[in-house]
Design goal:
The chain is of the alpha+beta class and 387 residues long. It contains twelve helices and twelve strands.
Length: 387
């Protein structure tokens, strides 16, 4: 097994690694540090920078000669500089910090998101003399995550507006009819008829607002063919760091996957919601399995694509399972708005799909499985009910 990943341009065989002199080993280590895609920085226990590799120059904009001998606070935003004493305190205690996500400032004033892994550095006697820091720029991933969050908020808003509009539309039609009859009642005097016409106009305005709200939710662009496996992989990729940090193993199994016709961005939102729920169920690590396969055994007689998200968490109680798809119901206390599964079910119903959940809370066998069944037919070919 090579001593160094070839990604960094340096690869050592087993015998070569063992035969290196201390000087040669140091030179190889320096070459690895310089060729790394991540910023690798060292500092002493007062926060003064003692080394600064090329990736640090590229990510933060400062040359090595500008940073070595300077405080690491140079790249920490003013409101976050209280983090540094806490970090140094943990390092002095011999603790390691893994995948800590925070913001830093580049030389040109830009804010970037970084994932930090910080380890104490010891001398030959075992005394802690400084720290080694690996910083990875995760700004693009954060942007994608924020886009998905905004997409979910927009979808939730649209669905809520549609739900409200749907509920008030029927009584509004009744009121509109009554206002029309009243405005055309010949027994009313002129003043009463003017009031009735004004009522009819105002009710008409309310009806238009309700129809616009429904249109806002229903207008989602044009559907098309998309690959479910690609959608799942993109959602997993976005959350890769979080999964690694929590020690969560992910197993995917895509067998005989066929293209699905629909709104890819909306279905991606459903997958993202199910994955995040599974992650939240595994704060101490565990396993998430995602399976997708075509089935010809559906009761309808038509082929369907079955997608499963399963986790090895503590499970969901029977009482909570019965309320999972209710709006604003959540078991996450202050960390959830209770709209994710409600919105997800609405999206799936729009695609003629169904979602089912099974869960077990028995110790040693606990876990939750969400199963989505997507029809393999164009949306236009399916019968649609009028809301």
């Amino acid at each position: 097994m090579p001593g160094v990943n070839a990604k960094h341009g340096v690869e050592l065989g087993p015998s070569e690694t063992l035969n290196l002199s201390p000087e040669e080993a140091l030179l190889r280590l320096a070459a690895i540090v310089e060729s790394s895609d991540d910023a690798i920085v060292s500092k002493d226990l007062t926060g003064i920078v003692t080394s600064w590799n090329r990736a640090a120059e590229r990510i933060f904009g400062y040359k090595a000669e500008e940073m070595i001998g300077q405080s690491i606070l140079t790249i920490i935003p003013p409101e976050l500089q209280s983090e540094e004493p806490e970090i140094l305190g943990k390092l002095r205690a011999g603790e390691r910090i893994d995948h800590y996500e925070t913001e830093r400032v580049t030389k040109d004033g830009r804010r970037i998101w970084v994932s930090l892994t910080i380890s104490p550095v010891k001398d030959s006697s075992g005394r802690i003399i400084g720290a080694s820091k690996i910083a990875r720029d995760i700004s693009e991933r954060k942007k994608v995550q924020e886009t998905l969050i905004q997409s979910e908020k927009l979808a939730a808003t649209g669905r809520m507006a549609a739900a409200i509009a749907h509920e008030i539309n029927n009584p509004l039609e009744a009121v509109t009819n009554l206002a029309y009859l009243l405005a055309n009642d010949g027994t009313l005097n002129v003043t009463a008829q003017s009031y009735a016409n004004l009522l009819l106009q105002e009710v008409g305005r309310a009806s238009d607002i309700a129809k616009q709200s429904l249109a806002f939710y229903r207008d989602s662009g044009k559907p098309g063919l998309f690959d479910v496996a690609d959608l799942v992989d993109s959602v997993l990729s976005i959350n890769r760091q979080k999964l690694v940090r929590l020690g969560i193993e992910v197993v995917t199994d895509y067998r005989s996957v066929a293209p699905v016709f629909g709104f890819a961005s909306e279905v991606r939102q459903v997958f993202a919601n199910l994955l995040l729920n599974a992650i939240d169920a595994l704060p101490d690590g565990g396993k998430i399995s995602v399976r997708a396969r075509v089935s010809h055994k559906h009761p309808s007689g038509e082929p369907v694509l079955s997608v499963l998200f399963a986790d090895t968490g503590t499970g969901i109680s029977a009482e909570n399972r019965s309320r999972l798809f209710e709006p604003f119901f959540t078991t996450k206390k202050n960390h959830g708005n209770g709209l994710g599964l409600w919105v997800s079910r609405g999206i799936l119903e729009k695609h003629g799909a169904r979602i089912r959940v099974k869960s077990c809370t028995r110790t040693g066998h606990s876990g939750t499985v969400f199963r989505i069944v997507l029809p393999l037919r164009p949306i236009e070919a399916r019968h649609r009910t009028v809301a």
